[in-house]
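dumping this here so i dont lose it
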């Protein structure tokens, strides 16, 4: 069977691929979690992956949604999260990117993403990416102010190489909020914090920032947390509390400069 041409997978897609929490949140912060879920719709037969791969970091960002939800609660901030695995469609990539529906991820081959026709790619784009993109665009459009903050996690070992960085503060061309957060982190050095690591704009990871914030002149930042720090509720709480303090301090400094 050609796993890339399994029919009727759309029938196993959730009614909504977007999870919006606190839609009326009072904070200017708009939290986004593009890789919140490892759900692969049943009709795609796990994309040909075994259970270990389908539940691993290649399918989602472990702990990222938990951190985002804790920040949403603490800040009274709207949170928009994706409910489908990034292996089906990575909502932090535009449709033309070869990483939107990647056939390889680290050491894993994704058989169900191999040899996709343009029609099949368009199906995933239309039913997964576009609703998510529209939800973000509407949230930005209908708010008086928006500070876009995307939350991700990364694996401590990638292609056999350990990563020393524990928290990455990422930005594209607009670095103001990232700069303010890095200054705040230097005053509260709980974790090994680095700029644009373990990824940066050159890796194509700032699509959401570019599309929904940079293009509109809105403050923005992407946060990456090493996922071994998020292995239990205590770790999530510690990281989220620390990030809340950094973000609050950074936004106060931005307001003071305006």
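and the seq i came up w/
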């Amino acid at each position: 069977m050609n796993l890339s041409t399994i029919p009727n997978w759309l029938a196993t897609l959730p009614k909504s691929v977007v999870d919006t929490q606190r839609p009326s949140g009072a904070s200017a912060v708009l939290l986004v979690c593009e890789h919140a879920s490892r759900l692969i719709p049943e009709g795609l037969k796990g994309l040909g992956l075994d259970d270990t791969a389908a539940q691993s970091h290649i399918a989602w960002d472990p702990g990222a949604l938990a951190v985002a939800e804790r920040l949403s609660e603490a800040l009274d901030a709207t949170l928009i999260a994706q409910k489908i695995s990034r292996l089906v469609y990575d909502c932090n990539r535009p449709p033309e990117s070869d990483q939107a529906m990647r056939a390889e991820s680290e050491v894993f081959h994704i058989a169900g993403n191999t040899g996709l026709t343009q029609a099949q790619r368009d199906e995933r784009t239309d039913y997964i990416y576009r609703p998510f993109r529209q939800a973000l665009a509407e949230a930005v459009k209908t708010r008086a102010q928006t500070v876009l903050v995307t939350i991700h996690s990364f694996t401590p070992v990638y292609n056999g190489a350990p990563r020393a960085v524990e928290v990455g503060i990422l930005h594209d061309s607009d670095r103001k909020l990232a700069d303010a957060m890095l200054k705040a982190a230097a005053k509260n050095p709980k974790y090994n914090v680095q700029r644009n690591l373990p990824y940066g704009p050159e890796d194509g990871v700032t699509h959401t920032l570019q599309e929904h914030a940079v293009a509109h002149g809105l403050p923005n930042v992407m946060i990456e947390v090493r996922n071994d720090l998020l292995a239990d509720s205590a770790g999530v709480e510690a990281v989220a509390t620390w990030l809340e303090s950094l973000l609050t301090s950074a936004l106060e400094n931005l307001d003071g400069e305006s």
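The chain has one domain: 3-257.
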